[in-house]
Amino acid sequence: MSSKPEINSRATSYDVARLAGVSQSAVSRCFKPGASISKKMRDKVVAAAEELNYQPNAIARSLISQRSHMVAILISSQINFYYPEVLFQLSDRFSKNGLRVLLFTINGEEDVADAIDQIWQYQADGVISASALSIEQHQLLQRRQIPVVMFNRYFYNLPTNTIWCDTESAVNEMISHLKDFGHSKFGLLRGPDYSMVSQERMRLVRQAIDTHGGQIVSESEGNYRYESAAAATQELMQHRVKPTAIIAANDMMAMGVLDELKNVMGKSVPADVSVVGFDGIWAASFASYELTTVRQPIGRMAEAAVEMIVDRIEKPTTSTEKRYLTGTFVQGTSTGPAKAK
Amino acid sequence: MSSKPEINSRATSYDVARLAGVSQSAVSRCFKPGASISKKMRDKVVAAAEELNYQPNAIARSLISQRSHMVAILISSQINFYYPEVLFQLSDRFSKNGLRVLLFTINGEEDVADAIDQIWQYQADGVISASALSIEQHQLLQRRQIPVVMFNRYFYNLPTNTIWCDTESAVNEMISHLKDFGHSKFGLLRGPDYSMVSQERMRLVRQAIDTHGGQIVSESEGNYRYESAAAATQELMQHRVKPTAIIAANDMMAMGVLDELKNVMGKSVPADVSVVGFDGIWAASFASYELTTVRQPIGRMAEAAVEMIVDRIEKPTTSTEKRYLTGTFVQGTSTGPAKAK
DNA sequence: GTGAAAGCGCTAACAA
DNA sequence: TTGTTAGCGCTTTCAC
């Protein structure tokens, strides 16, 4: 009766072993899936464990087995609806895969450096980066043998594990859709210059406009955030030749464009101007916006990212891979016939 | 020259000690803030550590020191803009405090139970719960001596650490504001019945309506989510006596109400109906909504939560505390003069 | 199938 | 101030 450890103090595998009258290693085996152990032994141990409320100490386990079963997620803490969607999708899936999430919200370059150190110190098994990562930082992780999967970003000419959204055909559809509505004068709202996502999207847009005909009458740059769209919209619309359709590099800014046009400039969307975005975030589907956009299959991308990192953790020699998931064109009510001249 | 450990294999404090020609414990001390160590020794160790790219293994440190420096955050993964705001605020602050975040996104009751086990196994130093937690689950954490801070929820008659938003005076202002606009027929859109936040908000609303005069002509219930507002709005407006102002238990639903009224029912807001919400989430301030609402000081609440859990971690005997931060009334453009009969 | 024993990498007495 | 030593709680050979 007195073999119970102090109330309040946590039971260890030794306590369980003593109570069950077996060796400590037997207890360990009992909690290791697929270990060879007789039913009788298992029952004894489980009973003792239950009585003592025993659960293995994951920290000790990590130390000896060199596997923390923790995965780090790096994600921008910028207020932007895209990141939370990605984060929650990833997190939900990691827990289903028996992995814990170590969260690092990133506000600036220093945060990344710090996160990378913590990842190293805490022996995270892998990293998903949905935040800016420099080549040096990526290489540092590689040198430390920590598998990395980049979410929606990659480096040129560098083997990386990447989940990317291929929007080429969707962009084509989008421009063709605008063209069908009679649009030929486009305004472009780019993302930040350093953003590969923005570069790629804008490249595809230009290419599609070339193909389908039309011209870009004005351009401006935002920082992906809602607020940045207000000034950018003014800039786009102040041009001598006004665009009849505005293409923003992400939904967040497209929502800002729409709001500026409707609620500040007194324009009507899509009667006066059509607006399109990229991402397919949830908010873009709200009745006040109903954006026409190119949707990323965020759920499937998260699924793929988790799968990819799990594979690399289990088999570190697995070669790098880029997975391109196809984005889809989604027609909302933010686009309509171009206003007759 | 050959005392360097295998390239690729991580350096330990022993490797550093060997290279620096000192004892392993000296290395340990060097990385422990405030340990007594001579400058000369520190320089030697730091140089060796740098050469080997040494950083202490946090897992081993946690095992021996019984402090993981990890804090668990439980948060609903429901698609609702409120939670991500809270999560990012908390996470940013935890990293500033030298604590790592172990994230648990919660989809249902089972997820909570699972998270609680993981928290125990991973020896999280503390827990912030911004998700539903049963009394039993809370008590289990208490029995395991893990400090818990509840974010925006608490139990009656049970000592808990809680961060709560006091909206009483703001609600009064809100109702008085509506009254000034000539509103006297209110529609209430409650949150789920089990939600204390909703109960409290609705209680204060009723109380304020009693005080200022007016009647509740119709009521319905939603689940806090945007989508649930559509049907609820129809229900509210189908009543014989129609409300001129609708009060929703959170902004997310208020946005849904506004969209249903404007974009589906063809009403004008606030000309036909006024709409108010609770929370003060970022999206509620977008030009398409500009909700009149009661704002929670989310940043300060997060700050308080972090402070509270840090205190409890450092001094476990600290008594429980409830902190009530005051919400503020924010006037948007979703409210205006009541339509003359 | 089971037990004994050797660590994983670190911190924290305790001596010197 | 520094080094020696004993674990933290577990996994994993290795005998039996």
Summarize the largest interface: chains and residue counts: A-B, 56 and 56 residues
> CATH fold name of the largest domain in chain A, please?
Rossmann fold
Find the structural class of chain A using helix and strand composition: alpha/beta
The profile of the biggest β sheet of chain A is: 6 strands, parallel
Radius of gyration of chain A: 26 Å
CATH superfamily of the largest domain in chain A: Response regulator
**Biggest β-sheet: strands ordered side by side in the sheet of chain A:** 2-1-3-4-5-11
Helix-strand topology string of chain A? HHHHEHEHEHEEHEHEHEHEEHEE
**What is the CATH architecture annotation of the largest domain in chain A?**
3-Layer(aba) Sandwich
In the CATH hierarchy, what is the class of the largest domain in chain A?
Alpha Beta
**Spatial gap, N to C terminus of chain A:** 92 Å
Mean pLDDT across the residues of chain A is: 94
- Give helix % range of chain A: 40-55%
Report the uncertain regions of chain A.
Answer: 1-7
Count the E strands of chain A: 12
Number of folding domains of chain A? Answer: 3
Count of helices of chain A?
Answer: 12
**Strand portion of chain A:** 15-25%
State the shape of chain A: elongated
What multimeric state do the chains show?
homodimer
How is this structure best described in words?
- Chain A is of the alpha/beta class and 341 residues long.
- The first copy, chain A, is 43% helix and 19% strand.
- In chain A, the strands form 2 sheets. In chain A, strands 2-1-3-4-5-11 form a 6-stranded parallel β-sheet, with helices on both faces. In chain A, strands 7-6-8-9-10-12 form a 6-stranded mixed β-sheet, sandwiched between helices.
- The longest helix of chain A is centred in the middle third of the chain and has 17 residues, at 196-212.
- Chain A binds a DNA duplex (16 and 16 nucleotides) through residues 12-14, 22-29, 32, 36-38, 41, 56-66.
